[in-house]
Amino acid sequence: MKALGKHIILELWGCDGDTLDSQEVVERALREATEKCGATLLQIITHKFSPQGVSGVAVIAESHISIHTWPELGYAALDIFTCGDADPYQGIPVFKKYFKASKANIVEIKRGVNFE
Amino acid sequence: MKALGKHIILELWGCDGDTLDSQEVVERALREATEKCGATLLQIITHKFSPQGVSGVAVIAESHISIHTWPELGYAALDIFTCGDADPYQGIPVFKKYFKASKANIVEIKRGVNFE
Predict the structure, then answer these.
(1) What are phi and psi for residue A94, nearest 5 degrees?
(2) Do B66 and A47 count as a contact with CB atoms less than 8 A apart?
(3) What is the pLDDT of residues B78-107, one digit of tens each?
(4) Phi, psi at residue B74, to the nearest 5°?
(5) Cβ of A114 and B13 within 8 Å?
(6) CATH number belonging to the domain at B5-82, selected among 3.60.90.10, 3.40.50.2000, 1.50.10.20, 3.30.1330.60
(7) Catalytic residue annotation of A
(8) Are residues B102 and B24 in contact, defined by beta-carbon separation less than 8 angstroms?
(9) How far is the C-alpha of B102 from the C-alpha of B16, rounded, in Å?
């Protein structure tokens, strides 16, 4: 059954807190992950929270990549949603590398599967 | 077991194509859904595709709300991710109303559940 897109829900644990708290690193990781997925970046938003934490979203021609970080817990919640030929799995090693994640949990959800 | 956030994956089918293709309606729906969820809007991005389709992401203090539309299929792929006291379910009727969806599929994923 054909799906319109692949949506990966990615939990990263055991990450480096300082890196998770860097707005600059979050933006760099989003840009590099977009490229590795073979996706086209349209717009990027990042936001730094006080006292800690960063949110970032890359809107791509193929849907989006998002990240929300909890530096105090070494945790980041990500999702990579692509349609077309982009491969969301290629983005995962980028985030693992930047945030030095020691554990990952990955769930893929097929989006836009029409049963009829 | 305590979770940091609730992430709702929402599939809407049987939607009105013209409305799904309106960048203005997508932005209005994102703003209203943010409010209904009890969330705080930080930044909003929308993008109109040619010949059809709209992507929109609201970055909220509690994470994000995203939508990607396929007007030609009457389909929209959404996710509503909130942490803290915001209630992501309150956003669903907003999108149902604006896009006149006849069918919905809802999956909730708990984010940031630390087993240790």
Answers:
(1) -65, -50
(2) no
(3) 999 999 999 999 999 999 999 999 999 999
(4) 65, 30
(5) yes
(6) 3.60.90.10
(7) 63, 68, 83
(8) no
(9) 9
CA torsion sign for B24, B25, B30, B36 is positive
Take residue A77 and report the two structure tokens written for it.
């919640």
Helix then strand then coil, % of chain B, to nearest 5: 30, 45, 30
Answer CATH for A5-104 from 3.40.50.10300, 3.90.180.10, 3.60.90.10, 2.40.10.220: 3.60.90.10
Q: Which residue of B has its CA nearest to A11?
A: B112
Q: Which two tokens stand for residue A106?
A: 């990955």
pLDDT tens column, A19-78: 999 999 999 999 999 999 999 999 999 999 999 999 999 999 999 999 999 999 999 999
Q: Are B56 and B64 in contact (CB under 8 A)?
A: no
Range B30-36 average pLDDT: 98
Size of interface A-B (CB pairs under 8 A): 96
From CA A70, how far away is CA B44, in angstroms rounded?
Answer: 22
